[in-house]
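User: Please run a holo structure prediction.
Assistant: Happy to. Please share the sequence and the ligand.
User: Here you go; the ligand is flavin-adenine dinucleotide.
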Amino acid sequence: METSAAARRLATRFVAGETLDDALAVSRRLNQEKITVTLDHLGESVSTLGEAAEARDVYLRTVEAIHNSQIQGNVSLKLTQFGLDFSYEQCLANVDQLAARAAECDEFVRVDMESSEYVDRTLQLVKDLHQKHGNVGIVIQAYLHRSKKDVEDMCARRIRVRLCKGAYLEPATVAFPDKQDVDRNYVELMKILLDRGLYPAIATHDEKMIAATKEYVAARNISRDAFEFQMLYGIRRDLQRQLVSGGYRLRLYVPFGRAWYPYYMRRLAERPANVLFILRNLLRS
Ligand SMILES: Cc1cc2nc3c(=O)[nH]c(=O)nc-3n(C[C@H](O)[C@H](O)[C@H](O)COP(=O)(O)OP(=O)(O)OC[C@H]3O[C@@H](n4cnc5c(N)ncnc54)[C@H](O)[C@@H]3O)c2cc1C
């Protein structure tokens, strides 16, 4: 699939393209629409520390390119791509190098959250590098039972949090199995972050979560510059436009890279309607 031209064309709905230049071109277009970006280089599963170092180098080039082309954006990365499965120390050294370069460029680095087995190590690494460089943030998943405590800890340490629902299949011992409990927890954590967090990111495509956030900031008189909404590139573009025209800050998570196929399939799997969209396009072409 990754080498098929037709499949690549369809994937551009959710993925900026295979190269850094593709990602920069999409970023420029989004910036013109008053949308900021966070660039993600696809390729979670590295199989050696050498590959992790290559991923780090791609991110170093990305941070420099964002800086040099004056794009309103930052980067998001996954620790497994930086070698966490092989060595915590080496992974820390890789992200440290990136955060140091990003700090020189006055840029921010977001560390995505992966499945629950990685949460403690991810929090530890972000706390250490935030203390050292001041420009590293985290993601907290509302589906985890533990997240309220983690949100409070991040607020106390002035570490920027992106709040999302959580994307991995987790057992009921660690995560709420029912959507309504996840949503209830999401709203509770959103309020804590807006009250006490540092420039939180409310990452969701759920209209109810977005409405609850808008209502809360209006009721508490919280400035629209004190937080941002985040969504995935290509998903709910109608909602994205509404937020921007309503005067809210919006950042899109823009993936790029040659390993786009697993990411693309995950986005399709989340919504049967996406598969219909693809089929309609295939029939048209
Ligand atoms: C910027 C950003 C960063 C993220 N980072 C992480 C991370 O680091 N770790 C992590 O575990 N998860 C991450 N996620 C994913 C997140 O945890 C959810 O799995 C995902 O956002 C779907 O949840 P939702 O809040 O949109 O609500 P849902 O209840 O899942 O969906 C609400 C509505 O959103 C729309 N929607 C959702 N997904 C799609 C789709 N694929 N296609 C079309 N419509 C869709 C539909 O209208 C749906 O009814 C991130 C999400 C975003 C937006």
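The pocket of flavin-adenine dinucleotide is lined by residues 112-113, 139, 141, 164-168, 203-206, 230-232, 235-236, 253, 267, 270-271, 274 (CB under 6 Å).
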